[in-house]
## 1
Amino acid sequence: MLVLTRKVNESIMIGDDVKITVVEVRGDQVKLGITAPKQIAVHREEIFLEIQKENIKAAESKIHLNELDKIWKDREKK
Amino acid sequence: MKIKTKFYNELEVLDEDVLVFPQGLPGFPDRKRFVYLHDKEAFFGCLQSCDNPEPAFVVISPFTVCPEYQVDLDKAATTELRLDGAEDALLLAIVTIPPGRPREATVNLQAPLVINTARRRGAQVIMPEAGYPLRFRLWKEEPTRVAKGKK
């Protein structure tokens, strides 16, 4: 990991198109501003990791679609 | 072309049925070609990888559990979907089924799949700020309604 030290209002460039600016520092919280092209998704790391984990879990499902559908339709009959 | 599927063995699919996910999906960044398999009578559909039987995701339309579901289309633009209008967008939500406990299945309303049906492109759009749950319980006793902002 490249570690750079910045003061408030200073920035970092990643490639030609991504800029990260330190907007505010308050206590142990840092507010970052990100300028990036629309095609690049920007997310808090923990959110991305949660989605990743959920996708992997979802892909592991073993039950057959037809069986799942049957169970679902039985539910509506009750 | 023939593809091997998780639920239907080998299937013949047309090139124009293939959906390209330029970024793959979180957890599966190198899986970029999928087909959407859906029996009209069925509640559940399947987003099947063209390159391999795995992954195949069980999916539903999010509107069936959340009639007022909304995706910020401008956000969808950030994932190279090139949507010209809302009418081209197909929304799907991935279902997670715990092994052996199908009635505990949950649906991911926080990160829907947005498919541009006109350009045959798709992406998973992550929208934590919209307030939808990551794991919405499908099997609920009362009529299902998810209020925006409710976790």
## 2
Amino acid sequence: MADHIAVHRSGLTMPVVTPRFIDNAWRRGCDFINMDLEDSVPQHMKGYARTLIKDAITNVTKGGAEAFTRINHDLVLADLEGIIWPGLAKVNYPKAEYGEEIQLLDRIISRLEQAGGIRPGTVEIGADIETSVGVANAYDIAAASPRVREFGGAGGYDMSRDLGVEMFVGFDQFVYGKGEVELAALALGLEPHTAPFTANTTGSVGDPDRAFREAEAARKCGFRVGGGLHPNVVEPQTRGFTPTQEEVDEAHQVLEQYRQLEVSGETWAETDGNIIDRYEAARARKLLDWSELCAARDQEKAEAFARVEAAEA
Amino acid sequence: MSMLIRRSNLMVPVTNAKFAAGAWRHGADAITLDLEDGVVPALKAGARELVKDAVAVAGKGAAEVFVRVNKEFLVADVEASTWPGLAGIMLPKVESAEDVVEASDALTSAERRHGIEPGTLSLILLLESANAVFRVREIIAASERVSQVGLDESDLSASLGISPVAEYDPFVYARGRMAIEATAAGVEPIGIAHPLGTLPRLLSGDDMLKVATDSKNLGFKGIICPHTSWVSSVNTAFTPTESQVDFYTQVRDVFAQAIAAGTAAVPFAGRMIDVPVDEWAKVVIATSTACNLRDAEKQTAMEAASV
């Protein structure tokens, strides 16, 4: 696993050209804000949109969120030259299809980091898999740069168009591709970013109950990365990806029982129908680590909010 | 680029005179005359003699006509199949890129002898083993002639030692792999959702339509139909519905208005419409138009042939 585990439970993707979204973004309480230059920005506004990023970074991070930018697949150089400013944590690159594309991104970002006095390696690359070619080359893409730390995709509208399938059907039309990107991520020690199938036949993007169920299901399948399009889903996603107090208590109990087991020299025991062994102990430790990271992240955001309020008072 | 519309491909043994003679009446986009598993070994040689007339008859309703050849009799079968009206051959039991190159070479040589423009005849590949599923990428890429690739799930079951049951789908991975790799290579994946791939049988209209629609949503572009009764459900399932065309026409309008107003993200019907949704809307509408044209073409030919 990566040395630094990012906490990206909730996030909003929004067109950077819509001031009412950007100006209110910091209040939403998400772990990250993804400022879009791509699909939500009209073609004739691409150049203008780029010029907004520098100020928007400062604006959207006031509440402790990390700032990401989604660039255009076909405007890589111009977009990168307009957006690599201090405070940008990640560049999301849509429709990634070849490792060479990611290597090129890496080179340009390295040059711009150096020119801008940004610590080398700061800016992460999100290589979004949205086509069948991308799935076919998933491993090469994920392995192309150490800046790729979270890796996934293989669903969504672009993928549906590429495969020629409808989005909202009663089964998982993307199961193979999601499996491939997850395996590539795990094989390379990256954080997998995908989710198990939960039926959604309406296509609603703002249903908080659904967002919570989805996030909880994803967490139970080992995923920790969220993100959405509607403010209603931020809190449910943050909650769904955070371990509950009950789970934290259980994890402490498992570790306590495992310590006793080690004293007795046994390798496993059964209590109340549950197995206690070193695998369960490792799982419990991982949950507690994640719970602490989530708490630290929530603390950071609360402090940032307090600073803004103090400044405005 | 014109869109290939080959939703239904009706398979008939060339030795069954009644089926071969009537196949054109069912509205299939393609008809495949079988020389392979549908013909017992003793009749193989005689079956080749039937192909010339059968190709002409099968094409009466404007279906594309294919012949499924025997891999072990590739050259003789290709030679017996190359007559006016042949769209291509279906190559079963493909195991390697070499198999595809060999078939392509056989077609090139047949084209030359018959004065057909080189590269005209198309290949539909059938994968029937774990090896073939694993090597799908090199197999598909072996020839420009490859237009479609499918799984023969019955033979794949036998190859893997599976006795299929309806309750469990053994081929989620194989189907997904083929759909992704074919789409990535610009070749159409064809196939049918569980359980009809491993257990082909007759289903009533609605049930058949459901399975065919699921197949489309697995990424497939068409279905090989062992029964005439599958054809109309398959054509319907792979044609965008009127309500889809209406919905996506509205999506295009709403999106165009949003662009004019300075945003490419606009809420509509609870969804968020942005570029990829608009792009998909274009695909749905263009597919609908192409399907309607294909259906009109077949209708005209069938009416003319029925007179």
